[in-house]
């Protein structure tokens, strides 16, 4: 490989982080010279080129509400990493695109990032349907995608790293908590009508029935996206819960439909002490849109809460408040997932000594980085990570107070043990197995074509 | 563990002694001990500590327990002093000393450990606090406390409740207490004589107790409970019917509000305005803006938003009419596309200028909660206001169209534009005013919707289809049709929803409308006369 012009610059020491003046000069000189180098020999790829980080989050459309903060989180993390001198002396350069909450556009934008912008890694997506749309592109062009949101599982791709929770890291422990600690016997599974809630509820239904819950004691309800008229459903839940057995609602209701749902719960006087609602998609950000007074005591299961009493968390919050300039800015679980994913990527690149996709893919398995709740997250061979599971109760200030947590971290399971099609499958992206859906009974690898569709 | 146990035993002894002491005050070191026990014990042990605090007879006990229930009792990590949190938002919290009540100012969140509370404990606390409140001089407080006791009477409390009943002057409080006691007697003791008290009660705890009694081994109890349940079921059926009707009307009134502006611009003027939803959104954002301008007075801000929302949406509507729609007169397809573009522009504008995130619109106190008709039926207040508001807006609009000169001119221009112009009516001016009126009413809908749904850039999108549906179903150009169509679609939807589910109910309603339009293409109230022929 041709030696870059940048290597000839005398290294300005940047041991002191606060010495940003030196750094900016160096950065400017470096940028200028790399541009020069580029113009001198167009076809040479300089080793000191910045590492390009693609950010694939919707900045407009329905999902902008959730995804735009993740874009800002990534920009903040990249800025901080650059202040510390980048990775192996290479700066990071964010490339932001806007897929506009449009699922096919996600695939197009991913292609643009990988083929045109030649990014080294992508952080992005929120909804499962957008991830499914990006998946073939990332696999075809051999990219890296870090996906930060809790999802339904049943997937493991060579090119995707799932830093959000799989069902066994969120839904199952939450149901265990309700069953064992609260003594719930009757269950309402309420969700928005799309793949994540449907798969999660299928898993939960099987799980509950395995535990001896009668079919009569399970009520399943689906509502469209953005549903706002919750009157009769909430009143049905109230009726279902007045049968004398302790009842709880497991909610996979997504996005802004939650606000009118919780408002209706409050108005109809459903108290958390009578019928607790445990939600998998309601975090600090969703709660910042409502008056949480009537919701006090309802639950959420996540792997991170903003209220966690931990110095790393407080530092992260301070940085976020400073970055956004908003004293009331909140942090949430997917932000922590990006924090973990980003740090894992940084460690993997350091370990591999290069940002080459295949090298990073090998290096990242087994990498451990601190999470924000006082423990460590490790990348498992199935491209999922280890996470603690926390159950929090909503407080009147829009925060959660942790009432229960798992004793140790839980490793994400790509293939649920509670679905007939997937209970024999495992995923291991280390050689020699190197397979995302290995069937332990038949001893064969399903391969890409057989990635279970939901 | 051992230390805590011996400590709590010590405390228990102290507690037993306290009532004998004349002073109702514990000294600060004892208070510190009690609170430390609360902070350091597990959730299970906390329950007995809470009871000790309540039993201490200290004047501050109520404040501590109330703060604890609100997750606002805590400890300063560095000094170990107990505090009550007054403001718990942001990174610095305002606190006061739990023991002396002295205000300690702002302390960093990092340095505060709140004492954890969970639902079970909060329930326990509610019971304890309501026992304290039963001695309150205010009758309303006593009534709320007595109602809260239903289902949470336990063995120790059961002995005290008859004394409370005897000492009580108010009949309502007495009745509530009697019922609370009866629930306990049926549920825990299987007392047949108590079943009669619960007969006809709509309280869910009472129903749960009876349901349990129905399955009991004692045949007399089971039979009595079954009979009592029968009368309850009767009442419940009536309640359900009334409730469904209310839900239907409230959904219907939302539809009417959203559609009535469209009934004017689309129905009367014949303009297909796809940006109608965004005009609703503007109204909702005006409410939000008003509340930002008048912090601390959400009610006043909401009332002021009614004229402000109307004006903002009307001006925006007029701007759209002047810049886009008037140039596309008589070309409905182009109008549709152009206004669709306008709607996307407005949405993205709000996203870029304000935020892609939903905004919090505060519901004023007088609009939140519900009115209790009986214990099984309560009607939510915000919906009730929306129903009333929709009717007022409708009546106002009818008045304008029927009784004012503008209304007369509008009707003249829509019926025969050329003839109206030759009679000296300025058709362009009428166009502007009509469009402004329709848009302004959309703004009013936005103000109302801000109270029941999310205020965000997508607010309008979710209502545009429904609005067109209502207008077409009601008969284009007829305001009465819009009212009737909105209310009936709302009610049908709510009738279908319980058994078909929300998704299917929506589809069924759509199918129903399509079938209806096949049969009667001009809707419920077709326009008659020559104007309709063209």
Automatic annotation (TrEMBL), chain B:
<feature type="transmembrane region" description="Helical">
    <location>
        <begin position="332"/>
        <end position="350"/>
    </location>
</feature>
<keyword id="KW-0812">Transmembrane</keyword>
<dbReference type="InterPro" id="IPR001851">
    <property type="entry name" value="ABC_transp_permease"/>
</dbReference>
<dbReference type="GO" id="GO:0005886">
    <property type="term" value="C:plasma membrane"/>
</dbReference>
<keyword id="KW-0813">Transport</keyword>
<feature type="transmembrane region" description="Helical">
    <location>
        <begin position="300"/>
        <end position="320"/>
    </location>
</feature>
<dbReference type="InterPro" id="IPR052157">
    <property type="entry name" value="BCAA_transport_permease"/>
</dbReference>
<keyword id="KW-1003">Cell membrane</keyword>
<feature type="transmembrane region" description="Helical">
    <location>
        <begin position="384"/>
        <end position="401"/>
    </location>
</feature>
<dbReference type="GO" id="GO:0006865">
    <property type="term" value="P:amino acid transport"/>
</dbReference>
<keyword id="KW-0472">Membrane</keyword>
<feature type="transmembrane region" description="Helical">
    <location>
        <begin position="468"/>
        <end position="492"/>
    </location>
</feature>
<dbReference type="Pfam" id="PF02653">
    <property type="entry name" value="BPD_transp_2"/>
</dbReference>
<dbReference type="InterPro" id="IPR017779">
    <property type="entry name" value="ABC_UrtB_bac"/>
</dbReference>
<dbReference type="GO" id="GO:0022857">
    <property type="term" value="F:transmembrane transporter activity"/>
</dbReference>
<keyword id="KW-1133">Transmembrane helix</keyword>
<comment type="similarity">
    <text>Belongs to the binding-protein-dependent transport system permease family. LivHM subfamily.</text>
</comment>
<protein>
    <submittedName>
        <fullName>Urea ABC transporter, permease protein UrtB</fullName>
    </submittedName>
</protein>
<keyword id="KW-0732">Signal</keyword>
<feature type="transmembrane region" description="Helical">
    <location>
        <begin position="498"/>
        <end position="517"/>
    </location>
</feature>
<keyword id="KW-0029">Amino-acid transport</keyword>
<feature type="signal peptide">
    <location>
        <begin position="1"/>
        <end position="24"/>
    </location>
</feature>
<feature type="transmembrane region" description="Helical">
    <location>
        <begin position="245"/>
        <end position="272"/>
    </location>
</feature>
């Amino acid at each position: 490989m041709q030696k870059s012009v940048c290597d000839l610059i005398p290294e300005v020491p940047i041991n002191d982080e606060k010495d940003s003046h030196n750094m900016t000069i160096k950065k400017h000189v470096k940028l200028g010279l790399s541009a020069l180098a580029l113009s001198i020999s167009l076809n040479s790829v300089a080793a000191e080129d910045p590492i390009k980080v693609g950010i694939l989050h919707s900045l407009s459309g329905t999902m902008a509400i959730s995804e735009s903060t993740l874009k800002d989180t990534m920009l903040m993390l990249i800025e901080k990493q650059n202040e510390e001198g980048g990775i192996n002396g290479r700066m990071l350069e964010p490339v932001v695109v806007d897929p506009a909450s449009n699922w096919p556009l996600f695939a197009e934008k991913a292609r643009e990032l990988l083929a045109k912008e030649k990014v080294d890694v992508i952080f992005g997506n929120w909804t499962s349907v957008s991830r499914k749309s990006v998946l073939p592109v990332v696999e075809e062009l051999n990219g890296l995608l870090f996906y930060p949101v809790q999802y339904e599982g049943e997937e493991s791709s060579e090119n995707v790293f799932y830093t959000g929770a799989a069902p066994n890291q969120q839904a199952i422990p939450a149901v265990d908590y309700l069953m064992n600690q609260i003594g719930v016997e009757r269950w309402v599974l309420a969700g928005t009508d799309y793949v994540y809630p449907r798969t999660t509820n299928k898993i939960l239904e099987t799980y509950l029935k395995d535990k001896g819950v009668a079919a009569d004691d399970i009520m399943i309800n689906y509502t469209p996206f953005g549903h706002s008229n919750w009157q009769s459903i909430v009143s049905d839940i109230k009726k279902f819960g007045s049968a004398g057995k302790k009842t709880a609602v497991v909610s996979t209701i997504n996005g802004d439909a939650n606000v009118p749902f919780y408002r209706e719960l409050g108005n109809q006087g459903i108290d958390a002490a009578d019928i607790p609602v445990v939600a998998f998609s309601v975090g600090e950000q969703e709660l910042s849109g409502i008056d949480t007074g009537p919701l006090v005591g309802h639950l959420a299961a996540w792997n991170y809460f903003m209220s966690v009493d931990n110095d790393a968390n407080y530092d992260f919050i301070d940085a976020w408040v400073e970055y956004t300039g908003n004293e009331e800015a909140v942090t949430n679980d997917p932000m922590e997932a990006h924090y973990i994913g980003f740090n894992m990527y940084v460690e993997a690149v350091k370990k591999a000594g290069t940002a080459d996709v295949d090298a990073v893919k090998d290096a990242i398995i087994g990498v451990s980085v601190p999470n924000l709740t006082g423990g460590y997250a490790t990348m498992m061979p199935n491209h999922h990570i280890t996470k603690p599971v926390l159950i929090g109760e909503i407080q009147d200030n829009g925060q959660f107070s942790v009432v229960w947590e798992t004793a140790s971290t839980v490793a994400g399971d790509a293939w649920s043990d509670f679905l007939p099609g997937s209970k024999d499958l495992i995923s291991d992206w280390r050689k020699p197995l190197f397979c995302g859906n290995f069937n332990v009974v038949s001893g064969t690898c399903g391969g890409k074509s057989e990635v279970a569709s939901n | 563990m051992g230390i805590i146990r011996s400590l709590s035993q010590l405390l228990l002894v102290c507690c037993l002694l306290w009532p004998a002491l004349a002073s109702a005050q514990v000294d600060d070191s004892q208070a510190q001990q009690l609170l430390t026990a609360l902070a350091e014990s597990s959730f299970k042990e906390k329950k007995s500590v809470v009871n000790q605090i309540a039993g201490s007879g200290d004047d501050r006990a109520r404040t501590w327990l109330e703060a604890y229930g609100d997750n606002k009792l805590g400890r300063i990590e560095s000094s170990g002093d107990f505090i009550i949190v007054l403001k718990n938002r942001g990174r610095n919290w305002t606190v006061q000393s739990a023991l002396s009540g002295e205000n300690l100012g702002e302390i960093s969140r990092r340095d505060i450990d709140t004492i954890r509370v969970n639902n079970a404990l909060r329930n326990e606390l509610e019971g304890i606090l309501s026992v304290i409140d039963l001695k309150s001089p205010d009758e309303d407080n006593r009534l709320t406390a007595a109602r809260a006791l239903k289902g949470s009477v336990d063995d120790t409390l059961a002995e005290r409740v008859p004394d409370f009943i005897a000492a009580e002057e108010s009949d309502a409080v007495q009745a509530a207490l009697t019922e609370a006691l009866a629930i306990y007697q049926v549920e825990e003791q299987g007392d047949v004589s108590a079943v009669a008290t619960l007969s006809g009660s709509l309280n869910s705890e009472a129903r749960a107790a009876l349901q349990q009694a129905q399955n009991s081994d004692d045949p007399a109890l089971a039979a009595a409970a079954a009979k009592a349940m029968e009368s309850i079921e009767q009442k419940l059926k009536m309640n359900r019917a009334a409730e469904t009707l209310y839900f239907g009307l409230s959904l219907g009134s939302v539809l009417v509000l959203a559609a009535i502006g469209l009934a004017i611009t689309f129905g009367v003027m014949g303009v297909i305005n796809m940006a109608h939803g965004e005009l609703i959104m503007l109204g909702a954002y005006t409410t939000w803006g008003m509340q930002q301008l008048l912090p601390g007075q959400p009610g006043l801000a909401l009332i002021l938003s009614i004229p402000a929302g109307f004006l903002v949406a009307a001006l925006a509507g007029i701007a759209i009419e002047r810049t886009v729609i008037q140039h596309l007169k008589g070309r409905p397809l182009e109008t549709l596309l152009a206004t669709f573009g306008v709607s996307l522009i407005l949405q993205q504008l709000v996203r870029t200028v304000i935020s892609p995130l939903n905004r919090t619109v505060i519901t004023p106190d007088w609009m939140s909660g519900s009115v209790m008709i009986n214990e099984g039926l309560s009607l939510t207040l915000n919906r009730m206001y929306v129903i009333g508001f929709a009717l007022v807006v409708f009546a106002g609009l009818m008045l304008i169209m029927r009784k004012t000169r503008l209304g007369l001119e509008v009707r003249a221009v829509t019926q025969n534009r050329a003839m109206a112009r030759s009679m000296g009516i300025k058709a362009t001016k009428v166009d502007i005013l009509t469009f402004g009126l329709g848009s302004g009413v959309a703004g009013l809908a936005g103000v109302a919707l801000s109270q029941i749904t999310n205020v965000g850039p997508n607010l309008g999108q979710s209502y545009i289809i429904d609005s067109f549906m209502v207008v077409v179903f009601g008969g284009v150009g007829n305001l009465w049709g819009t009212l009737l169509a909105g209310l009936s679609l709302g009610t049908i939807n709510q009738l279908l929803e319980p058994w078909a589910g929300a998704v299917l109910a929506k589809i069924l309603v759509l199918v129903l409308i399509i079938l209806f339009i096949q049969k009667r293409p001009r809707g419920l109230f077709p326009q008659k006369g020559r104007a309709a022929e063209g």
